[in-house]
Amino acid sequence: MNMRNLTRSVPHLLGALALAAGLGSTAHAADAASAATDVTGPYVGIGLGDSKLGPRSEGNDGSHGDRPGAAKFYGGYRLTDTWGVEAGWVQLGRVHKDTTANDGSKVQHNGDAHSLYLAGTGRVALGAGFSLTGKAGVSFGRVSAKESADTGFTLGGSKASPLLGIGAEYKVNRNIALTFDLDGYGNVSDKVKAGTATIGARYSF
User: Fold this and answer.
1) Using CA atoms, how far apart are residues 199 and 26, in angstroms rounded to an integer?
2) What tens digit of pLDDT does each residue of 179-196 get?
3) Residues with Cβ < 8 Å from 142, sequence gap 6 or more?
4) At 17, is the secondary structure helix, strand, or coil?
5) Gap between the Cα atoms of 65 and 54, Å rounded
6) Rounded to an integer, what distance in angstroms lies between the CA atom of residue 36 and that of residue 19?
7) Which one, of 199, 130, 205, lies nearest residue 174 by Cα?
8) Distance of alpha carbon 87 from alpha carbon 182, whole angstroms
9) Between 10 and 192, where is the model more confident?
10) What is the distance between the alpha carbons of residues 69 and 130, in angstroms, rounded to a whole number?
11) Tell me, what DSSP letter sits at residue 57?
12) What is the C-alpha separation between 113 and 93, in angstroms, rounded?
């Protein structure tokens, strides 16, 4: 299954998850209510959505790439109701850029981008199971690029950059939360910067 099919399936997957979790929380309403503030401890999660990738602007070197799919897999530990730590791996998708070689010919550059990250997390409860979330840390990005005829330009390389993210979550029951995240990974190589918008689910142990 390709990334586009995965992202198209997100609403169906989350809908089924929310229905199953809702039924479970109805059957255990008292437990869910008492556990509403039980947010500390380890967790794992997944997010699927879109990436925004593009080389830095360099004159007339062509357009940024299209909007590829993104997949995020992560785990973390909530130290308190507010603060925690998190690490994850993000597949950012393919990036494309056209340049003009010295002989005037058009050269296509393509690469695959991903990132490993480590961050501190914050959370502000809004009530009724909703919370605002944020993260700040370091993204260790990499773009694997194919060689091209234009040896003076490459999308490939590795780059450590600041990571910043904001989001929201809805805690369906003691263990399951639905999430929405906007994350900026900065430059993942010297010529490529990345950001994602994902929806997903998190399971707390």
Assistant:
1) 24
2) 999 999 999 998 889 999
3) 113, 114, 115, 157, 158, 159, 188, 189
4) helix
5) 6
6) 18
7) 205
8) 16
9) 192
10) 26
11) P
12) 6
Determine the Cα–Cα distance for residues 42 and 8; give it in Å rounded to an integer.
29
Beta-carbon neighbour count of residue 37 at 10 Å? 10
Candidates 134, 156, 135; CA nearest to 144 is 156
Q: How many residues does the chain have?
A: 205
CA nearest neighbour of 84 among 95, 74, 99: 74
Answering whether pTM is above 0.90, one says no
For 111-158, the DSSP string reads EEEEEEEEEEEEEEEEETTEEEEEEEEEEEEEEEE---S-TT----EE
Mean per-residue pLDDT, 171-183: 96
- Rounded distance, CA 18 to CA 170, Å? 10
Q: What is the DSSP letter of 4?
A: H
Residue 165 contacts residue 5 (beta carbons within 8 Å): no
Closest by CA to 142, choosing from 187, 195, 196, is 187
Residue in the structure block whose two tokens are 């593009």: 54
